Amino acid sequence: MPTIDANGCALHYETRGDGEPLLLLHGGMGIGGDWLRMFPTEPPGHQLIVPDLRGHGRSTNPSRQFTFRQFALDAHALLDRLGIARVKAIGISAGAKTLLHMATQQPDRIEAMVLASATPQFPPQVRPMMAQMTADSLQDSDWTALRQRHVHGDDQIRLLYEMVRGFATSYDDMAFTASTLATITARTLIVHGDRDPLYPVEMALELYRGIPKSALWVIPYGDHGSVWADRAAEFAAASMAHLARSG
Of 109, 172, 205, 229, which is the most buried if we count CB atoms within 10 A? Predict the structure, then answer.
């Protein structure tokens, strides 16, 4: 399982399949292996590029700092190492926020993308939830499960909880306005649950109105992780259909 040096961190990634490159970015506190639930087999004609984000899974984070802007820079570094100039991509939650940064940092590099459970900024109502995140409330069974996914010790796991808690007071990382969203050239599908407890559906509408070439799929009765559950196959099919479109 290869690893590259990406902006000072050891970034673990996997590639599966052959063909057109498709970058898959997992959610916060997740790992690249989560995508096996969405794509148990590779979509025909595609090579999946699946990293563990900085500080997640097998990837390290010597700086002990987390921003979605940095996640995006790391992903660009990975594409550079693989010699990929332009890519299609799917991101969920943290991965989708990372794609927003990638698509505004280097617009020409993202041809098309799917953003699931994204937001242009953290709404006020989610910040108290983030501020309460702590590893101290974890049960032994939780620690066992997390240690299987994040392999660099308990300090890594505690740092991931600190990451979420730190977002409660972060205002300059997720700060996308209509003018910044308007710079995105990627053909974009925005997917959002209408019962998302973190990011109200109005956040998806803001993205839809701001990103020039975008489409919106609101999942009825959907929560923040709807696409990982019983909607996984439907989400995968809709995502691949969107990415295959020519306009």
Answer: 109
pLDDT tens digits, one per residue of 5-45: 999 999 999 999 999 999 999 999 999 999 999 999 999 99
- Paired strand residues for 121: 175
Beta strands in the chain (DSSP E): 3-6, 9-17, 20-25, 46-51, 87-92, 110-116, 187-193, 214-219
The closest of 199, 207, 188 to 223, measured between CA atoms, is 199
Structural domains counted in the chain: 1
Kindly state the tokens that stand for 151: 């392999």
What range defines the domain where residue 189 resides?
3-125+174-244
Pair 217, 190: CB distance under 8 Å: yes
Q: Looking at the whole model, is its pTM more than 0.85?
A: yes
Query: 168 lies in a domain?
Result: no
93 residue type, one letter: S
Token code pair at residue 201: 């559906």
